[in-house]
Write a structure and sequence with these properties.
2 helices, 12% helix, eight-stranded antiparallel beta barrel, Porin, two-stranded antiparallel ribbon, single chain, 230 residues, mainly beta
Length: 230
């Protein structure tokens, strides 16, 4: 993790100097930013060995007062790290209606922290650190288009944990207030209970019982999206 932070700072430093030299700050006193992004996740350690890759969506909100680089960042994300589906008959329908049963393993996260953004020009490097919470959950849903509101869903297992992140990226202006936002971050979720694919096991009574694993569940995330300033 220390090496990753060093590489990030070494990359941001020269880009920041170029951005400051070529694109000085505008006289505006402050700004508010909001954005959304697609996420590609690379789980680490034992967690990564079991679940492989992950994908999801995220959103961010930022406030940068005055003319300085320091601001505040809030972020939310949804990351799916495992999913399995199979066809089943609707109970009580005498085998006449078939639907799809889907079990999804996912992480929901909320966090807030300081962000440093360099300049207000076309190229704007930024770096941040946040703290918050991550919610690990395994949910199962039944869906069938032919029977209207007969779908159902339930949470099979869940756990909460403290989380933190360190990341950075580039805002590349593509319009008056729009920016392509490309970044990367390390999410530290600590040690948490979680389920992987196949960890809901049918017992002798044909009831799915969770068999949770416990380990650190850190993730490296890569993000691509759009951010708008107001």
């Amino acid at each position: 993790m220390t090496r990753a932070c060093a590489v990030l700072l070494a990359w941001l430093a020269p880009v920041s100097l170029l951005a400051q030299a070529a694109l000085p700050d505008s006289p505006r006193s402050g700004e508010t930013l909001a954005g959304f992004s697609g996420i590609g996740g690379a789980p680490t350690g034992y967690f990564g060995q079991v679940v492989g890759s992950a994908w999801g969506l995220g959103g961010s909100f930022g406030w940068r007062p005055g003319h300085g680089p320091l601001g505040l960042r809030g972020e939310a994300s949804f990351l799916c790290y495992a999913s399995e589906s199979w066809s089943v008959y609707l109970p009580g329908a005498s085998g006449r209606i078939m639907g799809e049963l889907t079990t999804s393993n996912w992480i929901g996260r909320l966090a807030i922290g300081p962000q440093i953004t360099v300049g207000r020009g076309v190229v704007r490097p930024y770096a941040y650190a946040t703290a918050g919470t991550s919610y690990f959950a395994t949910t199962t849903s039944f869906s069938d288009d032919s029977c209207g509101d007969c779908g159902a869903s339930d949470t099979n297992y869940s756990d909460w944990t403290f989380s933190w992140s360190a990341g950075g990226g580039l805002l590349l202006r593509v319009g008056g207030t729009g920016h392509v936002d490309v970044g990367a971050r390390y999410i530290g979720n600590g040690t948490v209970n979680w389920l992987g694919e196949g960890d809901l096991v049918q017992d002798a009574d044909d009831v799915a019982r969770p068999r949770p694993r416990r380990s650190p569940a850190d993730v490296v995330e890569f993000t691509v999206g759009f951010t708008f300033n107001f």
